[in-house]
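Two records follow; treat each independently.
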Amino acid sequence: MTDNVLIVDDSLTVRMDLTEAFEAAGFAVLPCGTVAEALAVLARTEIAVAVLDVLLPDGNGMDLLQQVRASASSSRAAVLMLSSEAEVKDRVHALSRGADEYVGKPYDTSYVIAKARELLRAQNGSHTPERAPVLVIDDSLTFRSALSATLEAAGYRVIAASSGEEGLRKAAEERPCAVVVDGVLPGIDGATVIRRMRLDSALRAVPCLLLTASEDREAELTALDAGADAFVRKADQVEDLILAKLAAALRGAAAPSRDSLNVLGTRTHKVLCVDDSSTYLNALADCLREEGYEMTLAHSGEEALELLAVQGVDCILLDLIMPGLGGKETCRRIKAAPVVRDTPLILLTSVEDRVTMLEGLADGADDFIPKSSELDVVKARVRAQIRRKQFEDENRRVRDQLLQQKLEATEARAARDLAETRAELIAELERKNRELEAFSYSVSHDLRAPLRSIDGFSQALLEDQLERLDARGQRHLHLVRKSAQRMGELIDDLLELSRVARGELRRSPSDLSALARDVAAELQRREPDRVVELLIAGGLHAEVDARLLRIVFENLLGNAWKFTRKVQPARIEVGQLPTLQGSAFFVRDNGAGFAMSYADRLFRPFQRLHTEEEFPGTGIGLATIQRIVDRHGGRAWAEGEVGRGATFYFTVSQRFAARAEVPAELHLGQ
């Protein structure tokens, strides 16, 4: 999809110049000469980029900026303010009101387009997939076009530049995967382009191919000495050779990924120059612009601080002696601000003595240059400071990555140690449980024989020696038999509890409704005279061990049967319903119930809430249920109210389950 660019300027020359440049770059351009025309465009068209003049015949570009930001369809557009008003206050005003960049007139068309692309790329991020970009730098339009066509046919995206200066600027902004540069160019030559790229930490690993029409053997040595990865002589069918060498260079180079390049060198470097002398300030700016820097000018320390509050820069050139806020105090304030204190700062002064230089460095300056120095010295110092900052940023990033890796390794080691310790504890716990279960089984089994003897001999005495025993003796023997029989029940329940904890769990799709009906029928056969309303839902299914789930229903329905003994009419319901813990099965009765304050005790062995005279039992049944449900990966819980019945719930971790049928199936006891 082609991005729409809104250009608003009352100068026909400016509109035509920018329209031609943006259209050549592949944008759809909407030129306007007034605010009214621009508002009409905004009302019907979505804008990706807006280039707005500040002074317009029927309004102000700042107000139009607000309209762009308020537009529902174009609020995220990249906005560049374009104006001959180069004062810092105008720049600050525009940036603080929502502009993304402020470009002073006279402008560089290629810079405006590059900045627009950079802003769009920052907005879209990885959402806009791109082919691998290759930068082609050649002053021959014919050769540049032919090579571009070949590269694009091979799947590359071509970025074209006609001079070394333009190539360096585009390399910094577009971050290509490779560069093909002609050796002979207007301005700086191809070898110099490569040398400067090798000095930039963000571009130094980008593969570079140097082209030349020279047959001189020294040309290749010059190219390789400059840092080129390959050397190609221009000749017929040279495009195929360039493709082959380009592919080889990309395979062999440790070129940084586009993500890693987001840290450094993602834009043209910004340099802030601060000096109360307009003559020196303009000369300095012109000199540095030739190096491809984006210049911002301020005439005082106050203006510099005001600008830095809304826009960061990559290097600051600061005059030492200025009216108002002098260079030393401005330097101290900049170095005291956490956001900008790491920005390289170079002091400029006409006072050339050692004491002044030392004082400036003590105030936090990174370098000190006498104004009498050649401008080439200034360019070299600026380049060195920006390069130093890039090295520091890169080293910091690498250090942070190493620290993060170390932290992750430490966390992984701690997690591994914790897992090993947990595994050892679990193994030890399982061993202890097995020992305890074996002991419980052994003791329970060994106790059954003497208990049978006690019960049997007591019965024999009652049958054979009844006439010799008085009423008290007979009562004592009955108590002995009753106690032995109760102990036998306890042993049987303990053996059952031990059995459900051992053995293999054999899951299969099971009909729980049928299991519940079988258990209820058995209870009815034992006590045919009892009348109990049994409501058992059909269609209760789960993938479980049916043998163990039968034990669950025997205990739950047995308890419900027992605790409804004193209630008329007695009612027991079996069903399924959704809960916060997932789908749960339940057994509900309207019997004796219990107080919820005792709910946490119910599933512990030998915990009883009623006396033996009220409701007989051993207190093992619910503990057995808990053990079975736990083996199935579920949980059991209960709700109740004294005199109003109880509901017992349980879940199972299941791969196979079905909802209960509606309506439920009704069974009436006789």
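The next record belongs to a different protein.
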Amino acid sequence: MKINNIKKTTLSDPLNRVSEQVGKLSEQLVHLQAASPFEMQSLHSLEESLADLREKAKVFEDERNKLQALAETTQAVNSSLHLDEVLLIVMDTIVGLTGAERGFLMLMDPQGEMVTHIARNWEQESIQEPDYAISRTIIDQVIRTGETVLTTNARLDSRFGSQESIVTHNLRSILCVPLRVKEELIGVLYADNRIRSGIFTVSDKELLTIFANQAAVAIENARLYGSIHATLAEVVELKDLLDNIFTSMGSAVITVDIQEQVLQSNNAAESMLGLSKLDIIGRNLDDLIPSLARDLHPHIEEVIRSDQPIRELDLSHHMPGSGQVEWRVNLSPLKDADQTTRGVALVLDDMTERRKLEGQRRLLERMVSPAVLQQMDPNSLITDGIQSDITILFADIRGSTQYGERHTPVELVTVLNQYLAAAAEAVLAEEGTVDKYLGDSVMAWFNAPLPQPDHTLRAVRAALAIRRSVLALHTRLPLEAQLSFGIGIHFGRAILGLIGTEKRIDYTAIGDSVNTTKRIQENASVDQILLSQDAYDLVKDLIMVKQIAPLKVKGKAGSIPVYELFGLNDPGQ
């Protein structure tokens, strides 16, 4: 609303017309000489009274016009919740009501500094920052005291005349009014005139003080509206983001009320149930997933009763078209704005494939050393072999052939597995790698894939542990199932790596040292542990042995020196 659009009252117009008629009557009486001196004196007194009334009427009209403008502007200010629009109306009103040359509206920023938000001149044009020539002294006094400052001529005012800003900018009439909301200063209104003195009156001061109080409330309301509007925009944006996340989640999400009727579901839940959202919302869990709902029911009741979530609940049920499905379910209280629990949020993850993979890994760990598995990257399997110095152990079950001739294959496998498991556990306990099972024998090595400075000693301890395990098995098995091992240990260089194709690979060790170890094992008798010279040299100060006759084996031109192992010099090693 522009101040020049305010409708002016014309209270003095009738008085002007009466005064004109009295003047004409007086002139006519003088011309006709029809009036006595007393009558003429009365006419002059009437003319003077009318002139006085005209002056009073003009003052009254000015005050009334200002009050009317103030009322209309206050209404306009309070009808808008847009801060920029409110500030513009406030500033143009001040300049228009007071006859100021310029007006400035300043608001307190979060750091406590007064910042000019709008500056206007008498032509209702915005003033640019380089022309902000104002009295900081007067503004600081209003901020400090919270009282309005009025000066009709700042240069001659003893309070401010010596201030540099007043002298430099040739400031004359100044009116500065505080803006307060609930006794808190939020800004100031500043108006001045650099050309004329005496522009502002005490009436202007009182009028603008009232107006400033209304304007301050309107400004604060606009600020609050802007803050709420911005917060609402953030909430809407966050809601849209959450909706997108909710929709795109791979986990099935279903929210239910305390009667277990579905309130909301996401795309994954719709896919899981094979139904559209319209077919899901409002239905009971018992109707949608009967077998799962029966298992979920006591847990939903528990969440509602305790107001506490339930994490990682594993359930299994049959889904039409999918068969048996393994679910992991998380349940959380569903609360309203008052933090009252109104239902439960269910997050379901299909763990069927993961359970299958976990089972396959457990099976693989029984076939391959965990240390080997940790070294394997399924995304970058390298089949090139690596040369490594390793200690190799071969252990073969003695007496299995004869046992197999007298028993069924199932009985044979059952017994062999107990012995092979005992051997594997002894190797893994020393952090060795079980390479493979060859019928009724096991191959293992030490010092790879992780280096082990005492690798040969570990192999020795593993062999002795196998012997002890066999004795423990004999206490539980019938006499005819009491088999034994022949063990060979050798140290040498081998090629370690993945052997095979993409469809079938095997992590193994190959080389002459492997063949040599196997030949040594083949020459070990029942419960005998044989070490090659190379293995013996690495642990000779730690073990009790007896050198036996060198072995003549197939594939070797010379004989192989060997030692029979009896135990450790220090059993605590």
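Discussion point: The chain has a mean pLDDT of 79. How would you locate this feature using only the token line?
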